[in-house]
């Protein structure tokens, strides 16, 4: 204090005055100190993290997190010649897939979204600072994901060029960070128990095996290159390409107040952190509320499809007629009219939704994602492809068959039925060379004798927390078990080997993670391939007569007898898509 008083000796008044001024000066500094401390504390609380309460909240040590990085002024400009103009949109993320580039656009609130015709894919030189594009191409597709957000699919450009988008009227928009698909955290959902489920590529874990969770940790934040600025969290389970994390309470609470969600990724302890575009999302059907005692839908179906527009109508309408109430369509980079068909079915009264899923070879992850979404809405959900149709020889509705199967199995004590496994019978071209006009169920009637694999109908809450699945079935919790269904009760007619015009599309790419594409020289004798076909999409001379060991008209006969219009013999998918229009005949009874 003596040194401080020496500094004050310059005051021109007497000794008494100097003491008075010294006290006031010290008091002012004291008030300033406490005021500054209050501002800093308020800033810390406002930004959603605390230094002293992490152990109390989480029972473990956490680093503080800086939730959102502030953008520099140059990021809010559009490159248009030499003059920046007002920001209209930003390219939030860019992901390089093997044969295309995915760009995620973010628009300001209430801004008008550009159409496909108004946007260009722009290719810039990485090393040249000039804003003049080296190349422009039209987007392959532009989809609106949600309010104010779009997904743009661009053709892969020449190597060494930076890819962004531009508007024909507003110039070129700044490029975003670019990620390679083979190493990426790409989706994240908060489950009903408030844990975070992260979907990743690049960990290369073994299929259908639970891995050691202690070797990994989850990180929340924006800049994962600076570990001091992220929030770390325990990994509860990790298997295949799905990681379940303990969500920090402070992240859960902050998401209620902040519109833009924080990113999530996975870090290998002692190693690196996966790049991430996975922003924390919440289940839309039921949020984070406890599961309802009575769900709105008894039976639902989920599928992952690419370019199945011409078959989707038959698939949805038929399954509606046998009792399915809800459809989840994961669109895996379709470039046909899939979106329009889904919209027309929805407008006609079918409870169907399209979920954009651009991620290649992630069918297992997509089905797990779908199971999470359906947990609050569906008692049972089946996972089948668009060329697979449930056949119920008994003539009962699907929910009645499921009820009979699960209620008659009473010898397992406290163990309940959580999964119904249904055998798949693969049908061949049946002598046809053109797509059948009445649909696949009526057109294809010759199949292989022995079933190939099976498909599953599951209770979403019965699934193991790891969400392990191999497309055909899931791993269940310890208090649930599966049953195999006799084909006289239920079977799957899999119209796998259709006319060559349809079948050859399978050579494009397989959607499952752990199966080789048909053009690859791997597992050429797998049941997932066409026997004797090899790796080239060349039509064999005898294709139309292949895969025909037994004639099976069971489903065809039932469809024509129960669903055809008695006046003109047309089936419902050949005419209107209006769910309420017309009369359908089922087992000698009329259902309006």
Overview of the structural elements:
By secondary structure, the protein is α+β, with helices and mostly antiparallel strands. It has 3 domains: 90-179, Sandwich (Immunoglobulin-like); 184-282, Immunoglobulin-like; 297-553, Spore Coat Polysaccharide Biosynthesis Protein SpsA, Chain A (Alpha-Beta Complex), CATH 3.90.550. The chain has 11 helices and 31 strands. α5 (309-321) runs parallel beside α6 (338-347). It starts with a helix and ends with a strand. It is a single-pass membrane protein. Belongs to the glycosyltransferase 92 family. One of its GO terms (molecular function) is glycosyltransferase activity. It holds the Pfam family Glyco_transf_92.
Query: DSSP strand (E) fraction?
Result: 25-35%
Binned, the helix content reads: 10-25%
Total of DSSP H or I helical runs spanning 4+ residues: 11
Looking at the chains present, what oligomeric state does this protein adopt?
Answer: single chain
Question: What structural keywords apply?
Answer:
single chain; 592 residues; alpha+beta; Immunoglobulin-like; Spore Coat Polysaccharide Biosynthesis Protein SpsA, Chain A; 3 domains; nine-stranded mixed β-sheet; seven-stranded mixed β-sheet; 31 strands; 19% helix; globular; disordered N terminus
Quick gist of this model?
The protein has 592 residues and is an alpha+beta fold. Helix 5 packs parallel to helix 6 (338-347).
Which SSEs are present, and which pair or pack?
Elements: H1 2-7, H2 15-46, H3 54-58, E1 77-78, E2 85-86, E3 90-96, E4 100-106, E5 119-125, E6 135-137, E7 141-146, E8 149-155, E9 161-167, E10 171-172, E11 178-180, E12 184-190, E13 195-201, E14 216-221, E15 231-239, E16 242-246, H4 249-255, E17 263-268, E18 281-282, E19 297-305, H5 309-321, E20 326-331, H6 338-347, E21 352-356, H7 363-374, E22 378-383, E23 388-391, H8 398-408, E24 416-426, H9 440-443, E25 446-447, E26 454-458, E27 480-484, E28 491-494, H10 500-503, E29 550-551, H11 554-563, E30 584-586, E31 589-591
Parallel strand pairs: 3-11, 12-18, 19-20, 19-22, 20-21, 24-27, 24-28
Antiparallel strand pairs: 1-2, 3-4, 4-8, 5-6, 5-9, 7-8, 9-10, 12-13, 13-16, 14-15, 14-17, 15-16, 22-26, 23-28, 24-26, 25-29, 30-31
């Amino acid at each position: 204090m003596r040194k401080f008083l020496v500094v004050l000796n310059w005051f021109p008044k007497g000794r008494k005055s100097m003491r008075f001024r010294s006290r006031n000066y010290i008091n002012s500094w004291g008030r300033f100190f406490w005021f500054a401390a209050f501002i800093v504390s308020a800033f810390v609380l406002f930004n959603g993290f605390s230094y002293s309460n992490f152990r109390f909240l989480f029972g473990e040590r956490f680093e503080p997190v800086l939730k959102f990085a502030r953008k520099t002024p140059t990021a809010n400009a559009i490159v248009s010649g030499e003059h920046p103009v007002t920001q209209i949109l930003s390219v939030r993320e860019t992901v390089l897939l093997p044969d295309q580039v995915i760009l995620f656009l973010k628009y300001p609130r209430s801004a008008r979204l550009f159409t496909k015709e108004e946007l260009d894919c722009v290719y810039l030189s990485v090393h040249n600072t000039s804003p003049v594009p080296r190349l422009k191409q039209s987007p392959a597709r532009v989809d609106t994901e949600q309010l104010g957000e779009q997904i743009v699919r661009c053709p892969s450009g020449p190597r060494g060029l930076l890819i962004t988008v531009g508007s024909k009227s507003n110039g070129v928009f700044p490029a975003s960070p670019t990620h390679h698909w083979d190493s990426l955290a790409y989706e994240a959902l908060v489950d009903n128990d408030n844990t975070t489920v992260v979907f990743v590529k690049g960990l290369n874990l073994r299929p259908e095996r639970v891995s050691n969770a202690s070797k990994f940790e989850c990180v929340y934040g924006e800049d994962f290159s600076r570990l001091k600025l992220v929030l770390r969290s325990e990994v509860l389970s990790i298997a295949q390409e799905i990681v379940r994390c303990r969500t920090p309470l402070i992240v859960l609470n902050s998401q209620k107040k902040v519109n833009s969600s924080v990113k999530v990724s996975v870090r290998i302890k002692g190693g690196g952190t996966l790049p991430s575009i996975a922003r924390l999302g919440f289940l839309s059907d039921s949020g984070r509320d406890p599961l309802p005692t009575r769900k709105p839908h008894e039976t639902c179906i989920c599928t992952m499809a690419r370019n199945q527009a011409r078959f989707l109508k038959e698939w949805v309408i038929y399954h509606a007629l046998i009792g399915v109430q809800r459809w989840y369509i994961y669109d895996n980079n379709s470039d046909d009219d899939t979106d329009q068909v889904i919209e027309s079915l929805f407008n006609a009264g079918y409870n169907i939704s399209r979920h954009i899923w651009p991620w290649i070879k992630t069918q297992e992850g997509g089905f797990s994602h779908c199971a999470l979404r359906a947990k609050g809405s569906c008692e049972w959900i089946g996972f089948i492809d668009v060329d697979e149709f449930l056949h119920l020889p008994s003539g009962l509705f699907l929910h009645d068959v499921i009820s009979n199967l699960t209620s008659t199995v009473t010898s397992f004590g406290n163990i309940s039925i959580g999964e119904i496994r249904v055998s798949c019978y693969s049908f061949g071209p049946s002598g046809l060379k053109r797509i059948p006009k009445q649909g696949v169920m009526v057109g294809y009637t010759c199949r292989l004798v022995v079933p190939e694999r099976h498909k599953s109908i599951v209770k979403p809450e019965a699934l193991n927390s790891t969400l392990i699945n191999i497309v055909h079935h899931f791993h269940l919790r310890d208090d649930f078990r599966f049953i195999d269904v006799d084909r006289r009760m239920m079977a799957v007619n899999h119209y796998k080997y259709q006319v060559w015009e349809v079948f050859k599309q399978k050579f494009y790419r397989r959607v499952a993670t752990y199966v080789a594409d048909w053009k690859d020289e791997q597992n050429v004798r797998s049941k997932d391939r066409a026997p004797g076909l090899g790796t080239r999409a060349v039509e064999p001379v005898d294709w139309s007569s292949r895969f025909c060991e037994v004639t099976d008209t069971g489903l065809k006969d039932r469809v024509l007898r129960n669903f055809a219009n008695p006046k003109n013999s047309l089936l419902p998918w050949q005419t209107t898509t209006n769910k309420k229009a017309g009369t359908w005949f089922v087992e000698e009874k009329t259902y309006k």
